Amino acid sequence: MDSAQFLCKVVLIGDSGVGKTSILNKRIYEKFTFHTTHTELGQMNSLKLKINGIDITLKLWDTAGQEKYRTITIQFYRETKGAFLVFDMTNHQSFDNIKFWAKQLRNHGGDDVKKVILANKCDLTDKLAVTEEEITDLAKQINANFFIVSAYNSENIIECFDFMAAELIKNC
Ligand code: GDP
Ligand code: MG
């Protein structure tokens, strides 16, 4: 199969401040900062991966702060193949809001978008407000997979992008 076919749009959604931009920064530039700005990355970044010998390019779409007011446009979701639904493990409200984001994704992106929940900031071990059991339940409810990650210490950052890429190759 022509490798150029594996060019897939993936969006990152979730409440403001959960670490969406930080996760992308870490994966693409291998850097982390506590002082993120909305302009550090473009709205769309390409990540080229090789999974089991197959080349795939993920076009990763980050929000530019619109998520704060939940004013993400339909264009943002258009033709997306995958979605990372991100929440902050120290903020239970951001976990509860994953259902809102999953619903928005379903309304704008359709039913066949591959969903991966990212439970971020797992490095903040003394402040964790969400249990793995809760995440497992939610993942089942919205038909998603999940990874417990940290943009700060890199835990599962490579793994979650590789997983998404492998799933998209399967479904292409
Ligand atoms: P976004 O609004 O979802 O894009 O969130 P940002 O990427 O801007 O991150 C919000 C804040 O959380 C920033 O101060 C980040 O440095 C911090 N942050 C992001 N990921 C992590 C993480 O894994 N661990 C810790 N301790 N802080 C994080
Ligand atoms: Mg951001």
UniProtKB/TrEMBL annotation:
Portion of the full-length sequence here: 1 to 172 of 208
Residue ranges the record marks as coiled coil: none
Keyword presence, Nucleotide-binding: yes
Keyword line: GTP-binding, Nucleotide-binding
Superkingdom classification of source: Eukaryota
GO MF term list: GTP binding; GTPase activity
Name listed for the protein in its UniProt record: Uncharacterized protein
Organism: Paramecium sonneborni
